[in-house]
Amino acid sequence: MGGYAAYVWPSYGIAALVLIGLLIHSWTDARRLEAEVARLRELGSDIRRPADMRGDAP
Amino acid sequence: MHRFANPTRFFRIANAVLPVLAVVSAGLFAAGLYYALFDSPADYQQGETVRIMYVHVPAAWAALACYATMALAGASFLIWKHVLADLAARAAAPIGAGFTLISLATGSLWGQPMWGTWWVWDARLTSVLILFFLYLGYIALVNAFDDPDRGGRAGAVLALVGAVNVPIIKFSVDWWNTLHQPASVLRMDGPSIAPEMLLPLLLMAGAYFTLFGVMMILRLRGLYAGRRLRQMRLAAASR
């Protein structure tokens, strides 16, 4: 890396760390919350979604 | 456009697009990283540090595109009151903060060997730092209300006011004397960058933007499930 390895590799490392961290967080968050919705629905505590969540647009 | 405001229809389409987008993103990252690290020339002035450009510049582009997405989604929420618009703005904020953090950190790592300093308070760097704080402020603001719709409206107003920063960032290198170099790709008279460097740059930009799409869909799913949970708990509590 022509003497610049100490700057080039950390740049790629930080980019990878932030992007992979964001991706994993987005993925696990969606999975966890969707599983919780499914669990509550199985408990029979589901309700009809109110009109603003159904989004029946004109 | 209103057809897609129906969450069921929206997520049916989004979930069909998600795996395609994920595979394309992985492919673009593989190709982009190969060219960026192994099959592109060093710069005649900047040497090997030019390789920092391939993670730095696409991150900055994505950070700006993400902010535009957030502001437009916020505006749609204010005008049409679609829940999905609010959720889209909320989904974009942490992703944009991440892209901005990458551009700031890698820019610092590029500035030290090339400019002899990690940081300088010039127009480009300062306006991007403000972008980072706008994202953090938006996240704090939308979560500060018990009623999510009120939080969403307050956040949308902040996002719209902060949108003035986007053209300031883009043109800061032309309007003021900055240490930061001027645009070399998105120029009126075409890119001035060497084609061997433009290829990995565009591949990485494609990789960042498709990853942005993947993360947007995942975060929207999480936020939507969170809203449904809230409704279910409120209903259960009122029984």
Description:
Chain B: Required for the export of heme to the periplasm for the biogenesis of c-type cytochromes. Chain B: Keywords: Cell inner membrane, Cell membrane, Cytochrome c-type biogenesis, Membrane, Transmembrane, Transmembrane helix, Transport. Chain B: It holds the Pfam family Cytochrom_C_asm. The complex is a heterodimer of chains A (58) and B (239). The radius of gyration of chain A is 22 Å and the shape is rod-shaped. With 58 residues, chain A is an all-alpha fold. Chain A is 72% helix and 0% strand. Chain B has 239 residues and is an all-alpha fold. Chain B contains seven helices and no strands.
What does this entry show, briefly?
The complex is a heterodimer of chains A (58) and B (239). Chain A is mainly α. Chain A is 72% helix and 0% strand.
How much strand of chain A? under 5%
Report the portion of residues of chain B in β strands.
Answer: under 5%
Main sheet summary of chain B: none
CA-based gyration radius of chain B: 20 Å
Dominant shape of chain B: globular
Mean pLDDT over all positions of chain A = 83
How is the quaternary structure best described? Answer: heterodimer
Please tally the β strands of chain A and state the result.
0
- What is the string of helix and strand elements of chain B? HHHHHHH
Helix content of chain B: over 70%
Organism (chain B): Thalassobaculum litoreum DSM 18839
Membrane topology (chain B): Multi-pass membrane protein
Main location (chain B): membrane
Protein name (chain B): Heme exporter protein C
Which key features would you list for this structure?
heterodimer, A: 58 residues, mainly alpha, 2 helices, 72% helix, B: 239 residues, globular
Helix-strand layout with pairing:
The complex is a heterodimer of chains A (58) and B (239).
Chain A: H1 5-42, H2 51-54
Chain B: H1 7-37, H2 53-80, H3 83-115, H4 123-142, H5 148-162, H6 165-175, H7 195-238
Helix pairs in contact in B: 1-7, 2-3, 2-5, 2-7, 3-4, 3-5, 3-7, 4-5, 4-6
